[in-house]
Design brief:
CATH topology: UDP-N-acetylmuramoyl-L-alanine:D-glutamate ligase
Number of helices: 8
Largest sheet: 10 strands, mixed
Helix content: 25-40%
Radius of gyration: 17 Å
Number of domains: 1
Number of strands: 12
Distance between the termini: 38 Å
CATH architecture: 3-Layer(aba) Sandwich
Order of helices and strands: EHEEHEHEEEHEHHEEEHHE
Bound molecules: 3-hydroxy-5-(hydroxymethyl)-2-methylisonicotinaldehyde
CATH class: Alpha Beta
Structural class: alpha/beta
Oligomer: single chain
Mean pLDDT: 96
Strand order of the largest sheet: 3-2-1-4-5-8-9-10-11-12
Length: 284
């Protein structure tokens, strides 16, 4: 018996708006995974609110890392997300180097819908690619994938050959698995994935919902990690993550709440315990 898998989650905590740690902790806990939060910043509300107060915790991260090393802890996964300063890139690199056996997941949180978040300087965006390069898995949305590749945000719908090329180019920077979310394709919104070792490409297609909620990427990547740590294949974990994210988004849309309030996932959490096999994915 090994007990629950343990994930160090290097993300901010935002008081309102359901994103980052307020999504990651309940989602992974519901999937039977222990989350050890390493907060990068405390915000009164996520940056989508426009007005927020923020305490940067850059100095705290190396101190927490030293403590965990002294304790001799072992993590199954290190998962980084929203970062508050360029020094935090170095601190994440130290975290990854200190636990070489852990699965390294980088959600290169930088922006959405073609725009970067207000606290993200161009230097922070540039340095995010250093972090992506040491990851085993990266999960950019389309905006973040474009930033990492130095491409303009693509307008309109995309096709399979473009997305295969983006996935391969991102994996050539280092990560063995690349998953890109929020891709307008196939008359809906797709999630596309690539496993470099197997040279396999995967795709999930969801209905387009005409609103983009904060925290959707945090939810997707958390369910993906929970699935992979529980033994899912990549397409099954992608399927689990996109199905859960899509159904919680549809619930939220039905209530007409404001996008800044995030995804109403609480009534759905129990579903993450289910172990049904999934097969909605197709080859890309
Ligand atoms: O969900 C990404 C995210 C995380 N943390 C903060 C954010 C955002 C997106 O807006 O503002 C503080």
């Amino acid at each position: 018996m090994t007990g629950p898998k343990k994930v160090a989650a290097i993300h901010d905590i935002s008081g309102v708006g359901r994103c980052s740690l307020t999504v990651i902790i309940p989602v992974l806990s519901a999937m039977g995974v222990q989350v050890c939060p390493v907060p990068t910043a405390v915000l009164s509300a996520h940056t989508g609110y426009g007005e927020f107060v923020m305490r940067d915790l850059t100095d705290y991260i190396p101190q927490a890392l030293d403590h965990y090393k002294r304790l001799g802890l072992k993590f199954d996964c290190i998962y980084s997300g929203f970062l508050a300063s360029t020094q935090q890139i170095d601190h994440c690199l130290d975290f990854f180097a200190s636990f070489p056996a852990a699965l390294k997941v980088v959600d290169p949180v930088m922006g959405d819908n073609g725009k970067s978040y207000p606290t993200y300087t161009s230097e922070l965006c540039t340095r995010m690619s250093e972090l992506a390069a040491v990851a085993d898995i990266i999960t950019p949305n389309l905006t973040e994938a474009a930033i990492l590749l130095g491409e303009k945000f693509p307008e309109g719908t995309l096709d399979a050959s473009t997305m295969r090329s983006w996935l391969v180019r991102l994996s050539q920077k280092g990560p063995g698995i690349v998953v890109i979310t929020s891709v307008p394709m196939n008359g809906g919104i797709c999630t596309v994935g690539y496993d470099k070792k197997r040279n396999s490409f995967w795709k999930l297609t969801d209905e387009y919902v005409p609103i983009s909620y904060s925290g959707s990427g945090d939810m997707f990547t958390s369910v993906l990690i929970g699935g992979l740590l529980g033994g899912d294949s990549l397409p099954i974990a992608m399927n689990r993550a996109s199905s859960f994210t899509q159904s919680t988004i549809k619930t939220t849309y039905s209530y007409g709440t404001h996008w800044t309030d995030g995804i109403m996932f609480e009534p759905h959490l129990h579903r993450l315990r289910s172990d049904r096999e999934l097969s909605d994915y197709t080859a890309l």
